[in-house]
User: Which sequence fits this backbone?
């Protein structure tokens, strides 16, 4: 890609100080980035200039994994790829937050698309391994079959407990709010 | 005040105080590496972040600036249950900070916070995305994130079969 890409000269220096002048520094930072308003109509500043439709064609020839890098290359390309963001970023996000999701949510995300499935597998490899094991039952001896089935059942139980816990949390929340109201009166 | 130059993937440079930058695990390591390799202790470190564009980097720095006096959370705290501390940690400022963002930006922020190792920001952004997917059906998630199913043949069925052990229906 490097040969194709000439990112626009956006070299700027601004100071993000912290101390007292908080208000000021935020304003300084705010005019730092030029986000194009006319997104689709603008082409990246490359030579020779190509219309957005042509870029679209060029992008199609690239393996998908490159799209995230393209988005980061310059604001114009980022805008061109706006509609692809979900497709490109969501699986990456799943890989990153997979182990924080409730089990049931993680399992549902696996069904969204192949790439989401891969994302979850990256973020939560131990879960995937565990749920796949029972499918291999016939390859194991009887003793291990029993163990594997028990493990699968424990997983299922954990999911039920998790959703129950969620309900309890919500109830607790409303009780707390009620108590606060009572205190105020 | 000691400063560090942080450069985004699209070439914008931010001058940040080192004290602030060191609240990001990644930048802290980079600054220390620079210190070790450079003879001149007065030299200003320059760090190029190749995976984060200026708009997102600005948001991360802005968040760091707002939270510069928070105690630093150990990275592995609450790993088992990421939901515990996020609830109390989320201030009104954070809510206002996240409110105007669309999902694309939030997802880019998650990847940036993960890369730069900014635990607090990762927590609040994750929580936001989690709230968008928990309790939804597969189709609802596809619509919300503009995704298409790319399963071929019986691949989807296979995945469903694997899930079956844990989810009834």
Assistant:
């Amino acid at each position: 890609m490097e040969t194709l890409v000439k990112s626009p000269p956006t070299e700027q220096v601004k100071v993000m100080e912290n101390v007292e002048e908080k208000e000021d520094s935020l304003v300084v930072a705010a005019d730092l980035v030029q986000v194009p308003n006319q997104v689709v109509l603008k082409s990246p500043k490359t030579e020779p200039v190509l219309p957005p439709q042509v870029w679209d064609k060029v992008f199609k020839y690239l393996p998908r994994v490159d799209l995230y890098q393209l988005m980061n290359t310059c604001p114009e390309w980022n805008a061109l790829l706006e509609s692809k963001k979900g497709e490109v970023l969501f699986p990456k996000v799943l890989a990153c937050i997979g182990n924080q999701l409730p089990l049931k949510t993680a399992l549902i995300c696996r069904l969204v698309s192949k790439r989401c499935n891969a994302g979850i597998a990256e973020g939560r490899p131990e879960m995937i391994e565990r749920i796949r094991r029972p499918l291999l039952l016939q390859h194991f001896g009887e003793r291990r079959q029993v163990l594997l089935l028990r493990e699968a059942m424990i997983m299922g139980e954990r999911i039920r407990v998790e959703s129950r816990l969620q309900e309890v949390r919500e109830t607790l929340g409303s009780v707390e709010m009620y108590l606060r109201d009572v205190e105020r009166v | 005040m000691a400063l560090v130059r942080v450069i985004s993937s699209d070439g914008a440079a931010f001058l940040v105080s080192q004290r602030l930058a060191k609240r990001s695990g990644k930048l802290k390591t980079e600054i220390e590496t620079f210190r070790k390799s450079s003879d001149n202790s007065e030299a200003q470190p320059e760090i190029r972040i190749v995976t984060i564009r200026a708009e997102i980097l600005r948001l991360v720095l802005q968040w760091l600036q707002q939270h510069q006096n928070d105690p630093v959370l150990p990275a592995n705290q609450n790993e088992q249950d990421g939901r515990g501390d996020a609830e109390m940690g989320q201030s009104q400022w954070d809510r206002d900070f996240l409110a105007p963002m669309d999902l694309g930006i939030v997802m880019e922020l998650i990847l940036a916070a993960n890369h730069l190792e900014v635990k607090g920001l990762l927590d609040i952004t994750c929580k936001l995305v989690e709230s968008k997917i928990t309790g939804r059906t597969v189709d609802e998630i596809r619509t919300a994130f503009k995704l298409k199913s790319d399963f071929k043949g019986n691949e989807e069925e296979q995945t469903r079969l694997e899930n079956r052990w844990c989810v009834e229906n």
